[in-house]
Write a structure and sequence with these properties.
The protein is α/β, with parallel strands linked by helices and 636 residues long. 62% of the residues lie in helices and 9% in strands. It has a domain at 10-331: ABC transporter type 1, transmembrane domain (ABC transporter transmembrane region fold). Bound molecules: adenosine-5'-triphosphate and magnesium ion (MG).
Amino acid sequence: MCVMNQNETPKKLWRKIFDLLPQRQKLSFFLILVILAVSAVLSQLTPLAVGYLTDRVLAEPDVTFLAVLPVLLVILLVNVVNEVIKVARRLIVEDTATQAEKNARQRAASSLLMAPLSYFRSHMTGNIHGRLNRSLDGTIKLIKLMFMDFAPAVTTGIAAIVTIFIQLPVPVACLVILVIPVGTFIVLRQIGTQKGIRVELMETKADMDGMMVELLGGIETIRALDGAQAEGDRILARSEQLRRKEMRHHRAMAFYDCLKFINEAVFSVLVIGISVLLASRGRISIGTVLTAYLCFTQLTGPLRELHRILDEFSECVVLANDYFRILELPVDFSYLTEDIPVKVQEENSAVQTKKSPDEMCSEHPAGLSANSSGHSEAEGLTGLTELSRPQTGDIRLCNVNFSYPEKSEQRILKNISFSIPAGTFVGIAGPSGCGKSSLIKVIDRLEQAQGEIFLGEAELSSFSRRALAENIALVPQTPFIIADTVYHNICYGMKREVSLEEVREAARKANIAADIEKLPGSYQFELSEGGANLSGGQRQRIALARIFLKKPKILILDEATSALDNTSEKLIQAQIEKMKEDCGTTVISIAHRLSTLQNCDEIIVIDKGEIVQKGTFQNLRETPGIFRDMALGIVK
Ligand SMILES: Nc1ncnc2c1ncn2[C@@H]1O[C@H](COP(=O)(O)OP(=O)(O)OP(=O)(O)O)[C@@H](O)[C@H]1O
Ligand SMILES: [Mg+2]
């Protein structure tokens, strides 16, 4: 659900909108204000010219067309100039709005992509998407409303009031402009009563977006279950709720619109009646009657617009506030560690007081002490640079506990301690739901755990997101495929230019090259969203090809070969082992198909979030326990 309460003060909101604009665009606001002032003055010239025409020109005996022509030309010229100015204003406003939209979209995308993962688990994707689009549109509409509708209405209204006071006796002018407070009162009542409903409608629509995206994501399952009718009925029920809410809103709007027209009609009659009465008594001229009425319509015109504008304004303010709420989402904890340049880091390392891994964790496999990795302790305290050096793909966990933030009472990982020496191949096995994926998310800093985790000689918390991405490759259970070419999918995440030859080589190692070459366009073949035009195994192999391009220090495979046939899996595993030998890559592999883990140096077996066994494949197969049960398919 979106949270759309607690709006900013208008001043703060406008400051934030202003900040979305580049400097040049900020200056154009002032140009718009000048244009508005000129336009408001010009708009008063027509009623004045009509009054002049009536009193001075038409009052003359034997009026000729030539005598009228100059006044008509002035009216024409004034209107043409005013329209040209309005076009210029419109172009400046559109330019400003599109600039703001471009920046706003980019900022929102960055904000979302850096938000904590728990945010995405508690909000439906479609809901976030719909909310982002609506709030962004609302924010941009607010800019347009302000400078295309609201400000022109106000400036024209002010100019009309000034003309009315100049032309009519003060008591009459006061009576005429009473139409404004009465009209504004009605509008404010309308906005006040309808505000909640508009927010509610927006939230319901956002929920329906979420529902729709969820359904489309499961289209195959829904079809297999023949669920189209049932889902259609569910949507119908939700749409009916939405329709009822909308109708309640429209009924209220119709009532207030009625009041507004009555207000306008009453004051029109008053203006005509009083000014004609005054003219009949010689207090004002007939021309002034016309000028007064035209000025009155210039007041009611903007006033009528003001109803719509304020109405839309209130909606856009809610949306703009929601947009800035997206922009101000908390940043994921893993972005809070900054990159420290190598030099500074090494200088600082001498004064840091972090514990060395030797001090902190009792468990160390042979040959894994800080000295054995060939680095001094001071060197070992650096982050990115340390991991980037050879032989620093060691991973050590000491008393690690973890719960998902949205379910903090359920401990997913309990007192996990182990060490993985650099350049080794470690398997993680255990029943479904025991915490394997959670464990690797913790190691890649996607989730935050309690306890101590070291990569190389440095604490995991000292690694920036960039440093982790440079050194760790995680192939998740569900491969991420973008709607783009095969080439771009294999290069995805690479921070350097990658040649087609390199991509081909990576594809060959991932045993997908032959499949790709059969596709029309080969590496330029466009994949569908989520790789829907590939088989499950092909998707996995595309994701695996990425690791051969990246050659990471640490490779984490989460069921990354689960959809592959045995031959493909073996070929790819041989390539992974070759990369391990060549680059000293540390490999962590999670697999349900236990044969995948046959060549592991060590297998860690987890059950209900705890390490219950450790050993080599052969060892574990021969020892009574959960691993042997899983290998033999024994159900207990
Ligand atoms: N976001 C979450 N919030 C709360 N609990 C979660 C969340 N994600 C996973 N869990 C729970 O954490 C436990 C461990 O999940 P995890 O995905 O780590 O299991 P797994 O061992 O990888 O299972 P599988 O082999 O089926 O992939 C499960 O009980 C799961 O229900
Ligand atoms: Mg898993």
